[in-house]
């Protein structure tokens, strides 16, 4: 296997289409204009010595090691900063160059520790490599005198020496090993866009400094790891490498956190994971990462992970560890009993957006083929189901229109209800890079997120609307575009239904949709709405990126339709740089939807009522599929409370924590007779489970994830499942126990079945993915290499469909008892319900959920920063600590939902999107007041959870 | 509708959901709205939800918006044996 060594070309690739030919050491090489001599040489297979250059950042020219000689030019220019010219004749190795390089290295090494044998970078150190490359044999200057290496010189404290900074939980900063090449500083600026690092001092006193001479953990650093990756020495080193040593082989796989779907090299020593390093060929991330994917994988070996199947008769009993055989036979028997007793439709299941496509496909297959009903749903219900509906209605396909690379050609980015810097950090870095290069930004969000203003980026317009008024604001933008004649008539006539456009134009032109009227509802100044509309319509390539702040509302689907309308109005569809891009939450939520996880749809978004589609599966699976739509998650819970739904198979979801109105969820679960939870940990839902099937992590199985750009990425097994079975094997064993004749030997066979039965996946196979790296669906004979950008020559549905978007205020209203509006979201270091990230060192950044409240509202209530506060809605109450900030407007409060102790969803209500039942997480009327500590409910909940997690034979409960 | 301190039961919720769907389609011409509401419920509601819907409809459809009432004729009544 071996380690995957990626070639470092030293400087970024040039995008020029014009080719230039030059000669390097007698070899002709042709490269795009604008390429550096260093990169051109590397293309020709000649590695020029270098220290400060790496192809993730722009050339800097400081180390003076990469010098070359060019015929007809004076001196020895640095090859990283010198662009190629036609006919140029370059020499990379001459007597003069050899002397200079050796002299440079001599100086570097004279101020560097000589502890190579015990250094963590031993075997992976560019300084060591360069000393070898230039043939350094002696340091004539000696090691005495001024230095940064030793704490004391001759017994006297050395003030140039700095102690190691070990504050970051994942990497160390050892200034004594720093050669001040600035690669870390530039990676932080150019790749990550945080600007947390700088070089302080000057000359010999120059040092890398996080923030203003702070510790890494106290600085603005977001721990993305770009600096660690860029560091050529042991100055910035992963603690895991320090502890374990250098890896010996690596496997390319896909991150299991957010919907960006970054590619990583899992670098291994034996079956121990040493580190995750972003893969430069990963088309979603292009070699970048965030703190979660790069570092937060420790949950896979956390002591609370459950590795044995368990069952119990009542949820008040302790768990009993049993064999897989017993657990699965018991489950199958219970499910069949329930169906016999209460009817075929009395059971169902939930597929996991964290599991692979193959695993998701099997769960829905088990339900449709084995349970004989369509009661299957997935967590997309509570996040992007309105995207599926809205984009399906308007464009004919339920997914984003672009690839992430497209942002490089965007002129105006419009972000609605999303905070990519926290929730989709690697995409945010790519967007910020484009913004620093001059693209404009509009943000529609109740909070002043870091996208609105942070280092070297600032939104042109921030529409800080009142939660729940998205439709009004989006429609007002359309009003401005139509009434001011800013729409793209040619595009609309060619691609859309003209009469539907006319109807829509008439609808939005009504004065009730004008910015001046909408200002009264939304609180956004009319001029800001007008400015945003003009910029989006006329600023060049306009791209919309949106998140759950759009979908998780009573009118979520209507807003998605409104967004689709905006892109059609302005012709911002069907080419690079534009489009409508839902930022999907979980790693495989796109895939879970694609694989037929919705109760009304078979894989590939084909409605269950279609006879021709059902026939495909009927003949392959040898059953007659039910032609009626099944229950969605909230409907399952309602039916459970009503007594008609009694059993559920939940793979990798924690509905008790993630779904709204916790009390209703727990009542539903409690009313069931067989709740089966398959997960890594005893999650909150497992408190109500009768069967627990241990799950496997993404490191322990083969499969694919599909990210927010429809990209199918391979997930590769790097170690054996610690629980014994990959999740797809568990589902297969359960299906077999229920009498189904399944016999998949490898996940690739499952993908083959998907391809065979789903037109948009027709050409997808593991063999093809191996060849292509990754591919974006649709991938079939019409698009043999996949589809980076959709709707290029026309919409999937034919003509683009404009649909009226009437604003209807939510019924969740503020009043004297609940005067504030609560909205919820995510933070960078934590992920979703936190089951994974809470079990990593990421808690260093976010140990508890905090309530953000405006100083004005806090003062009125006599609250100080850090106080315990009671948060109440009509659904329930909880307590948490307050943080006072003007990021939120007066009247609005905000919190995250990463911690079960807080249970923010005790507060959220059962209101939901009209079209999809996607819950209205983003608007809850609340009251906030002083509190002494946890509420009775929280205490009771914790008590119940502790009781419920007891395992017979284990002294302590699992948590 | 006031919801403070009030948790909806399943039937009440179904009426609420049907009315929400109708509200969206109210901005369309009446016939299109009727067809839209019916199609939406046919496409997305499982048989037991539609059965409960018709139980309420057959008792007079209390609380249902006129567009829901008008659409009911086009909503599929679930088969007896449906799940």
TrEMBL record, chain A:
The keyword Cell division does not apply. Residues 248-304 form the 4Fe-4S Mo/W bis-MGD-type domain. GO terms for molecular function: formate dehydrogenase (NAD+) activity. CDD domains: fer2 (cd00207), MopB_CT_Fdh-Nap-like (cd00508), MopB_Formate-Dh-H (cd02753). Keywords: 2Fe-2S, 4Fe-4S, Iron, Iron-sulfur, Metal-binding, Oxidoreductase, Repeat. Residues 18-96 form the 2Fe-2S ferredoxin-type domain. Residues 169-200, 213-241 form the 4Fe-4S ferredoxin-type domain. PROSITE patterns: 2FE2S_FER_2, 4FE4S_FER_1, 4FE4S_FER_2, 4FE4S_HC3, 4FE4S_MOW_BIS_MGD. The keyword Iron-sulfur applies. Pfam families: Fer2_4, Fer4_7, Molybdop_Fe4S4, Molybdopterin, Molydop_binding, NADH-G_4Fe-4S_3. It comes from the Bacteria. It is an enzyme of class 1 (oxidoreductase). Residues 96-135 form the 4Fe-4S His(Cys)3-ligated-type domain. Its EC number is 1.17.1.9. PANTHER family: FORMATE DEHYDROGENASE H, RESPIRATORY NITRATE REDUCTASE. In the C-terminal section; belongs to the prokaryotic molybdopterin-containing oxidoreductase family. This is Formate dehydrogenase major subunit. The lineage of its organism: Bacteria, Pseudomonadati, Pseudomonadota, Alphaproteobacteria, Hyphomicrobiales.
Automatic annotation (TrEMBL), chain B:
It comes from the Bacteria. InterPro entries: Formate_DH_dsu. This is Formate dehydrogenase.
């Amino acid at each position: 296997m071996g380690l995957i060594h990626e070639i470092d070309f030293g400087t970024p690739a040039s995008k020029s289409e014009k080719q230039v030919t030059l000669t390097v050491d007698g070899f002709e090489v042709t490269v795009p204009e604008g390429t550096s001599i260093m990169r051109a040489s590397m293309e020709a297979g000649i590695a020029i010595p270098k220290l400060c250059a790496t192809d993730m950042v722009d050339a800097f020219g400081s180390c003076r090691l990469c010098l070359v000689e060019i015929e007809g030019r004076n001196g020895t220019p640095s090859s990283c900063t010198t662009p190629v010219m036609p006919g140029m004749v370059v020499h990379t190795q001459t007597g003069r160059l050899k002397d200079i390089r050796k002299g440079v290295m001599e100086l570097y090494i004279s101020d560097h520790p000589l502890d190579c044998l015990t250094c963590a970078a031993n075997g992976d150190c560019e300084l060591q490599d360069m000393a070898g490359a230039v043939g350094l044999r002696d340091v004539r200057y000696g090691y005495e005198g001024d230095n940064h290496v030793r704490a004391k010189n001759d017994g006297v404290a050395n003030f140039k020496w700095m102690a190691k900074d070990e504050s970051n939980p994942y990497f160390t900063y050892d200034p004594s090993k720093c050669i001040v090449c600035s690669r870390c500083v530039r990676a932080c600026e150019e790749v990550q866009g945080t600007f947390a690092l700088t070089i302080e001092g000057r000359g010999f006193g120059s040092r890398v400094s996080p923030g203003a001479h702070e510790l890494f953990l106290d600085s603005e650093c977001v721990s993305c790891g770009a600096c660690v990756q860029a560091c050529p020495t042991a100055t910035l080193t992963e603690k895991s490498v320090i502890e374990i040593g250098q890896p010996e082989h690596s496997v390319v796989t896909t991150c299991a956190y957010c919907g960006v779907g970054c590619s990583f090299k899992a670098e291994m020593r034996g079956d121990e994971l040493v580190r995750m390093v972003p893969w430069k060929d990963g088309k979603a991330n292009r070699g970048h990462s965030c703190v979660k994917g790069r570092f937060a994988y420790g949950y896979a070996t956390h002591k609370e992970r459950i590795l044995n199947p368990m069952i119990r008769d009542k949820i008040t009993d302790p768990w009993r560890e049993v064999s897989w055989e017993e657990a699965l036979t018991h489950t199958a028997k219970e499910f069949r009993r329930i169906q016999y007793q209460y009817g075929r439709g009395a059971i169902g299941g939930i597929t996991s957006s964290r599991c692979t496509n193959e695993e998701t496909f099997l769960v829905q297959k088990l339900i449709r083929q084995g349970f004989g009903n369509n009661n299957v749903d997935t967590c997309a219900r509570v996040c992007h189901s309105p995207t599926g509906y809205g984009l399906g209605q308007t464009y004919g396909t339920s997914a984003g229109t672009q690839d992430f690379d497209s942002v490089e050609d965007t002129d105006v980015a419009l972000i609605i209800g999303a905070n990519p810097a926290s929730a989709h950090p690697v995409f945010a870095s790519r967007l910020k890079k484009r913004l620093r290069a001059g693209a404009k930004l509009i943000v529609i969000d109740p909070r002043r997120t870091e996208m609105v203003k942070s280092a070297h980026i600032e939104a042109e317009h921030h529409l800080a609307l009142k939660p729940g008024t998205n439709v009004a604001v989006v429609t007002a933008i359309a009003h401005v575009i139509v009434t001011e004649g800013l729409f793209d008539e040619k595009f609309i006539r060619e691609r859309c239904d003209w009469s539907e456009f006319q109807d829509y134009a008439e609808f939005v032109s009504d004065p009730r949709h004008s910015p001046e009227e909408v200002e009264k509802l939304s609180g956004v100044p009319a001029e800001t709405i007008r400015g945003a509309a003009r910029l989006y319509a006329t600023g060049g390539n306009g791209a919309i990126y949106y998140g759950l702040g759009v979908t998780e509302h009573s009118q979520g689907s209507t807003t998605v339709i409104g967004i689709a309308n905006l892109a059609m109005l302005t012709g911002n569809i069907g080419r690079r740089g534009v489009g409508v891009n839902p930022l999907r939450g979980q790693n495989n939520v796109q895939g879970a939807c694609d694989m037929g996880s919705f109760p009304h749809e078979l894989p590939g978004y084909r409605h269950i009522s279609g006879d021709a589609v059902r026939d495909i599966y009927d003949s392959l699976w040898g059953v007659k599929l039910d032609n009626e739509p099944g229950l969605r998650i909230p409907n399952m819970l309602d039916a459970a409370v009503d007594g008609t739904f009694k059993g559920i198979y939940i793979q990798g979801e924690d509905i008790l924590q993630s779904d709204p109105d916790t009390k209703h969820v727990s009542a539903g679960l409690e009313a069931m007779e067989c709740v089966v939870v398959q997960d890594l940990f005893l999650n909150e839902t497992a408190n109500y489970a009768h069967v627990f099937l241990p799950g496997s992590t993404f490191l322990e199985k083969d499969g694919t994830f599909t990210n927010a750009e429809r990209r199918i990425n391979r997930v590769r097994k790097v170690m054996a499942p610690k629980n014994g079975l990959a999740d797809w094997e568990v589902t297969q064993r359960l299906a077999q126990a229920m009498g189904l004749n399944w016999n998949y030997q490898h996940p690739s066979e499952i993908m083959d079945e998907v391809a065979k039965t789903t037109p948009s996946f027709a050409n997808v196979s593991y063999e093809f993915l191996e060849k292509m790296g990754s591919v974006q669906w649709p991938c079939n004979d019409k698009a043999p290499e996949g589809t980076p950008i959709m709707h290029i020559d026309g919409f999937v549905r034919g003509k683009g469909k404009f649909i009226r978007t009437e604003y209807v205020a939510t019924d969740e209203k503020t009043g004297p008892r609940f005067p504030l509006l609560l909205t919820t979201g995510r933070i960078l270091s934590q992920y979703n319900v936190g089951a994974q990230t809470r079990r990593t060192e990421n808690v260093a950044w976010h140990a508890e959920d905090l309530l953000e409240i405006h100083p004005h509202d806090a003062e009125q209530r006599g609250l100080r920063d850090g106080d315990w506060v009671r948060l109440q809605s009509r659904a329930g109450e909880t307590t948490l600590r307050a943080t006072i900030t003007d990021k939120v407007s007066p009247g609005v409060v905000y919190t995250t939902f990463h911690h079960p102790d807080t249970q923010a969803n005790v507060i959220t209500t059962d209101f939901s999107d009209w079209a999809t039942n996607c819950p209205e997480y983003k608007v809850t009327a609340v009251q906030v007041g002083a509190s002494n500590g946890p509420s009775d409910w929280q205490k009771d909940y914790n008590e119940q959870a502790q009781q419920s997690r007891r395992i017979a034979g284990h002294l302590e409960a699992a948590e | 509708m006031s919801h403070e301190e009030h948790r909806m039961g399943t039937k009440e919720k179904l009426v609420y959901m049907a009315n929400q769907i109708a509200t969206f389609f109210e901005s369309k011409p009446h016939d299109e709205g009727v067809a839209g509401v019916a199609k939406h419920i046919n496409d997305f509601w499982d048989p037991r939800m539609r059965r409960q819907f018709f139980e309420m409809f057959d008792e007079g459809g209390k609380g249902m918006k006129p567009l829901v009432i008008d659409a009911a004729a086009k909503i599929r009544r679930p088969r007896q044996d449906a799940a």
